[in-house]
Amino acid sequence: MASHVEGRLLRRSVPYVESWIAELAPKAAAAPGAAAAAAAAPKSKEKASKGKGAAAPAGTDNATAMSRCCFAVGKVIEVSRHPESEKLFIEKIDLGAELNALSNNEPRTILSGLQEFVKEEDFVNRLVLVIANLEPRKIGGIPSAGMVMCASTGEDPHNPASAGQGERQVVLLDIPEGTAVGERVVFAGHDMPYEPVLKKKLAKNFEEVMLEVCSNEEGVVCWQGKPFMTSKGPIKASLCNARIS
User: Fold this and answer.
1) Where does residue 207 rank: exposed (0-12), middle (13-18), buried (19+ CB within 10 A)?
2) Angle CA(25)–CA(102)–CA(109) in degrees, nearest 5?
3) What is the CATH number of the domain that holds 101?
4) Quick one: average pLDDT of 153-169?
5) Is residue 32 a part of any domain in this protein?
6) How confident is the model at residue 162 (pLDDT cuts 50, 70, 90)?
7) Domain that holds residue 237
8) 116: alpha, beta or left, given left = phi > 0 and alpha = psi -120 to 50?
């Protein structure tokens, strides 16, 4: 149990993910503070059924770190390679009517450093899990409005804690077939409306949550040991006991 807990604490924090993505972006295109992790900024809209969909005003009473985060299911409708990067994909992702409405009724543009690990043809038309309310940032000069969550194992050159863990592998998460695009993943007791944007100090909520997110020995993606559940079943990864970021 102790080693499991220690493993959780070694996972990426938001500052680490930002520095990793910064290195993926083309050097010439990146301005100070511009290259960073993909993030999104949903604003409040009509409350979804059972209170699980809508964004909340900042400082909502009884909110938890998890409830402030917006993990939503999206569908990748277009993928292209960044013209100046051998690592970055540019994705267009449908996040459903409510979240699309917050981006001028357009699919989200999201950049991910996955060229080395994911084929374009395996990415298009796939359901993915997106963290949708981090502060928007540019990656390689292109605005990115979300982060596609993946599972990874092995040694990561950008993470000293992973030294000696073998060859690096990164995979997209497996969303149950039939899950509705735009569905938010929530946990019992943490299903309050999410924050519109996790800006500044609020970004620590995502960092805190991700310290306790991993796939278990059966490949089920969990937070604090509880599965990421959709209306059609749990989200899984083909990599067991993996980091999620």
Assistant:
1) middle
2) 25
3) 2.40.50.140
4) 75
5) no
6) low
7) 66-244
8) alpha
